Predict the structure.
Amino acid sequence: MPTERLVLRRPDDWHVHLRDGAMLKAVLPFTARQFGRAIVMPNLKPPVATTADAVAYRERILAAVPAGVSFTPLMTAYLTDGTDPDDLAQGFEDGVFAAAKLYPANATTNSAHGVTDIAKITPVLERMAEIGMPLLIHGEVTDQAVDIFDREAVFIDRTLAPLLERHKALRVVLEHATTAEAVAFVRDHAASGRVGATITAHHLLINRSHIFQGGIRPHLYCLPIAKRETHRQALLEAAISGEGPFFLGTDTAPHPLTAKESACGCAGCFTAANALELYAEAFEQAGALDTLEAFASLNGPRFYGLPVAEEKVVLERSPSTAPDIVLIADGDGVLPFRSGETLNWTFVGAA
Ligand code: NCD
Ligand code: ZN
């Protein structure tokens, strides 16, 4: 008999783009409905680079949380070549920042202010290692000569492995891991307890062929781009393993429909509207619903040194429909991942 009801400690989303303004108001309720806490990415325009920026952004997020919903945004700092180690450390010690995000300059959406050469932020990384502040990494090389499907694996070799060698106490999360190489690398460092990886729902569900199924599907385009099926299998195996370093991070990245459906569509999948249903589907396909709670609710808090949630949520094995376009107050809209399609699970709410 298949499992009909899943009761989990309330999960957290360890990688989310909440945006700002009208978009923030439109998308935040979806994340706050399912997740108790979320690591909020700082790639706004301009980026959330200082403690003062993060305090102000956190206020705007909290103002957008619907009445009666409990949700804690965990803020991150956007590292630039000019990041001030004192401000960063102060923000971490004051509990404003939970972590800092490394975007190699121009690797992805709104990363133009990112770090141009990791050597430039050596003092910042030394300080972070000293105070135990996690470094969250967009792990792709920006060298355009490297094939887009190889950029993560090459980053691991060229940048991540030497980085961990240089900074022996630095704690890192390889965000939105998409390759078998990433899984193997994280496992190689598991004993140290200082390397984690988030895995998105969409990378558990699609491979690169899906992006071109019957035509070009801009809503399946994100960065890092989905890889071939063998990599999806490796990610799924890691996610369902229950192993501590692997935890849930949706990388829900909403963009206006017009920016996605364009001659040069931008990167990002908006999965917040049914994130847990999507993860449940992937875990069920792998016959591993029993390890969803470790991945979604236990491993992340453990890595970040936070308490696991006391509240519980319920998912039911009944069909639900991924919503149609989500309208934004500025007149545009965002299309959810799998919009209009039937999902096998329904998020019911608090237990
Ligand atoms: C993200 C975004 O739109 O901000 N896009 C994406 O494809 N994931 C940026 C990122 O996390 O790379
Ligand atoms: Zn992201």
Observations:
- The longest strand covers residues 72-78.
- The chain has one domain: 12-308.
